[in-house]
Specification:
42% of the residues lie in helices and 14% in strands. It is an alpha+beta fold. The longest helix is centred in the middle third of the chain and has 51 residues.
Length: 177
């Protein structure tokens, strides 16, 4: 029978024996395994996927809201155009050049949606509005009033106001030129 000399495994190198803290400087032990690295990659991939889907959904919803705003504005412009060429329900005669009466009938028949307001101007001055109360009065904003008074063709646009961003459709109605 042969006997082999007994040896003890050496676990630390000479440099590690001199500086016991250096073994911990190599990095956290949990990152050393393949499972840990795969988990970190999975978490990163999941974060990218969630962020991307949130951004895509936000864009789609924004486009749908814009489409709905456009449809609503187009519908209102058709209604006032038809009304202007129609008959005054009170007198039974054509409106002719009575722009004020056209606005009165239009506003009495149309109720704005939430966050919507109808403004009318006659000879460059605010005339009627609906609803009567609003957080910010667009018809008292001199910059917007000037912008809308200069409209001679239908104009669709956006404007920044102290009350927030406003999307508008300005339709000119002219009586006797």
């Amino acid at each position: 029978m042969m006997m082999l000399p007994r040896t003890t495994p050496v676990r630390e190198t000479t440099a590690e024996m001199a500086d016991p803290g250096s073994a911990h400087e190599r990095g956290p032990r949990f990152l050393s395994g393949i499972r840990s690295r795969m988990l970190l990659w999975y978490i990163a991939l999941l974060a990218v996927a969630v962020t991307t889907s949130v951004l895509v959904i936000h864009r789609i919803l924004t486009l749908r809201v814009d489409e709905q705003i456009d449809a609503d504005l187009y519908q209102e412009s058709r209604e006032i155009s038809v009304l202007a060429g129609g008959i005054d329900p009170r007198t039974g005669e054509r409106f002719r050049d009575d722009v004020e009466r056209i606005f009165e009938v239009f506003l009495s028949r149309n109720i704005p949606h939430e966050n919507e307001v109808y403004l009318t101007f006659v000879d460059g001055e605010p005339h009627l509005r609906r609803p009567q109360e609003a957080a910010y009065r667009l018809d008292r904003d001199p910059r917007l009033v000037e912008l809308w008074n200069d409209v001679d063709t239908p104009q669709r646009g956006r404007a920044e106001t102290p009350g927030g961003e406003v999307e508008y459709l300005a339709l000119p109605l002219r009586a006797q030129g």
